[in-house]
Amino acid sequence: MPNKVETAxxxxxxxxxxxxxxAAEGCRLVQIHANRTSDGYQxxxxxxxxxxxxxxxxxxxxxTEVESISGIYPAAQLYEQEMAELFGVRIIGIPEDPRVKxxxxxxxxxx
Amino acid sequence: xxxxxxxxxxxxxxxPEPIHLDLVLEDEKVxxxxxxxxxxxxxxxxxxxxxxxxxxxxxxxxxxxxxSYMHGMSYxxxxxxxxxxxxxxxxxxxxxxxxxxxxxxxxxxWLGLLAxxxxxxxxxxxxxxxxxxxxxxxxxxxxxxxxxxxxxxxGVARDMDREMLAGFVAQFDKMESELRSLTKVFLKDSxxxxxxxxxxxxxxxxxxxxxxxxxxxxxxxxELDTRKLGYAAYGDIDFDIITSSGCDxxxxxEVRIGEIFQSFRIIRQAVDKIPDGxxxxxxxxxxxxxxxxxxxxxxxxxxxxMKANGTxxxxxxxxxxxxxxxxYSLLKILPGAQFADVPLLILTIDPCxxxxxx
Amino acid sequence: xxxxxxxxxxxxxxGSSCNGCDIEVxxxxxxxxxxxxxxxxxxGDPRHADILLITGGxxxxxxxxxxxxxEQMPEPKxxxxxxxxxxxxxxxxxCYNIKGGVDTTIPVDVYVPGCAARPExxxxxxxxxxxxxxxxxxxxxxxxxxxxxxxxx
Lengths: 111, 358, 153
Hints:
The complex is a heterotrimer.
Chain A: E1 5-9, H1 15-24, E2 28-37, E3 40-49, E4 52-61, E5 65-67, H2 76-86, E6 90-92
Parallel strand pairs in A: 1-4, 5-6
Antiparallel strand pairs in A: 2-3, 3-4
Chain B: E1 3-8, E2 20-26, E3 29-36, H1 44-47, H2 53-60, H3 68-83, H4 89-117, H5 121-142, E4 151-152, E5 155-156, H6 162-188, H7 190-196, H8 204-209, H9 215-218, H10 249-273, E6 288-297, E7 300-309, E8 314-320, H11 322-333, H12 342-348, H13 353-357
Antiparallel strand pairs in B: 1-2, 2-3, 4-5, 6-7, 7-8
Chain C: E1 9-14, H1 20-27, E2 41-43, E3 51-55, E4 58-59, H2 63-72, E5 78-82, H3 84-88, E6 98-100, E7 110-112, H4 119-152
Parallel strand pairs in C: 1-2, 1-3, 3-5, 5-7
Antiparallel strand pairs in C: 4-6
């Protein structure tokens, strides 16, 4: 089957280390998004090396603080900002620039 | 040196779409660009939980009016993967042909807008004149110029007969020769080169770190094209991945021009190989499961994530569009550029803000 | 004597459209449809514009931008809502960030339906807008004449 996707789960504690290694190996960060679950969120980090795509799933509760990986992949900032604005996921360490608001929405519409 | 902040947008003549940048300038040189979004944000991902999954297809097609066909197709591919159905071969080839037609019209649109951005009005008009012929083909075969709505979960809604396909291919020779002389101006003309050559360089390492996709990435020397994953009928079709090692705006122009000619090649092959048969198989029931689909849109790789829980509504629909990923590359190439080059640099990523903000 | 309808200057703003109508607005400027034959000039400056073409609905963030552009345009001015989203919100009207059609924010004179609106219907809408523009300019001329007469007497 073409377009095959591998999935793996990951914990918030090791995320940053994993991403650092992935970046050193030349992997691309394809996207990050959040899914709402009954008592928290499921964050999916997709990284790709060549055509091979891995979805890293991370299940967290509403209060869990996740460290930003924008220090490793600068492009991650937009995805993290999006999750924080739409879902209210707590992400710490997004470079704080009040002008870089993504959608300017009231509250967290998808929470 | 004294710094000045010049606002750019949201209403700006060079782009039909609103994007706002605060450009921090030192004299004529850009030192920093601070973006601000949200002028087009509608909240479509949330709508997935309110609409029937069959009806939501028509919302997905309206994520973007330019790559509308591909959004619809990817949604159907995702749903078919959740249902576990294989669509008929003829439908796969038809999808491939429509995909390439939309790539052609998108790239020609971009060439025109680029010419407009550096003030070459005649080139703009010529590119769009040729583009209208592609749109005529789309309209003949689907009934719509931009938003075609021919995809269904399980196949496609319309067929193209042999005469129509042969008619398309017959027009290609003339179009290709017109395009050859047109693209020569883009690549060889000294005034155009002066605006594009060595402007907005993005190195290979930066392209990976900053998440560049599509022609932007390929112009930085990375050979990656999601069509090679073989969705629709791409697995049976032979085509080249166009790359360039120039890393600058001229390289991006070169890559897109190369892709235009590859698209003609793909459609020719698809027309030769297309099998006879059904174009649709009915799909019944409600979906349950999840799927991740990647396709190559004109602007680059797009990723769709769908999660269904067995009801008529999808639990989650997520799309990561190419421009969303390219924004950071833009912010990377702006510092150091001349102020007058800013509109041009914004165009070289081929921005589609309605995709980005959904 | 028609003054405005011979060469109206048009400005286009993308509300929260999907890009389809925007591209069709641009396409109607290019060789095949060529609205420049009606004397229509596309401008990027609201202070030069007589007709405002808006595509897409209004969301909570661009509301102030649309209002500002409308206020910056000189009188008489005409607003044309292009596409079904600009008319009523279209498929997006249930989205959380969409306020509705353009008429929720500024007065609209001509509605152009379609998804995406075809260049032919955009041209038709523009030609109708010319009539509205002419009527508005006649009305404002009569008004200012009445005022100056009142001052003299």
